[in-house]
Write a structure and sequence with these properties.
By secondary structure, the chain is an alpha+beta fold. Helix content is 48%, strand content 16%. The radius of gyration is 25 Å and the shape is flat.
Length: 178
């Protein structure tokens, strides 16, 4: 027995398969994001900003808080001033032994990526030449696409990355950071 499939049927089947695969991948991502403990997210927010984040100090269990107090961190404010640095973080995965792994990136040479890209493409010089009516000069302004791409991707920010793994107790408090 042979089935005749029209071109429309084949396209419909392919699109349905892609939607199904996308749904499965999306469900995995949603399930992984739902698994993240609140305290780990709160502490990573506090690590990635120099402003106090409510509840960051309270996210540690009592023995860990005692250790933090020993080094002078006794509140959300002191956590922000001594630990927090402006940066970006994102959740990576849960480890086999129950830890939650986050990556934290901090620019050591922070600057405005948009302005850097615009500058590397020569746009200020092009605009100035056009305002003077110098179309030939505007057309021949040198631009460095490779350097502009480095600005877009953040390579010029000179970022450093750190990994944090949080281990939680049954109540959701952080007991250990690796």
């Amino acid at each position: 027995m042979r089935f005749r499939l029209s071109r429309t049927s084949v396209v419909t089947l392919l699109i349905g398969g892609l939607i199904g695969a996308g749904t499965m991948l999306g469900a995995t991502q949603v399930r992984a994001s739902m698994d993240r403990p609140t305290c780990a997210e709160t502490v990573m927010k506090a690590v990635s900003t120099d402003k106090p984040v409510n509840g960051s100090f309270e996210c540690f269990d009592s023995s860990y808080r005692a250790g933090l107090q020993h080094i002078g961190i006794d509140s959300d404010n002191t956590f922000a001033s001594q630990v927090g640095k402006n940066g970006e973080y994102h959740y990576l995965h849960k480890t086999a032994d129950g830890g939650y792994v986050y990556e934290y990136d901090r620019a050591r040479s922070p600057h405005d990526r948009f302005k850097g890209t615009v500058s590397k493409l020569g746009l200020p010089s092009i605009v100035a030449a056009l305002q003077r009516g110098d179309f030939y000069g505007a057309w021949h302004v040198p631009n460095d696409f490779e350097a502009a791409w480095s600005e877009i991707t953040g390579d010029t920010q000179n970022e450093s990355s750190e990994l944090f793994t949080f281990y939680m107790d049954h109540s959701g408090k952080i007991t250990f950071v690796k």
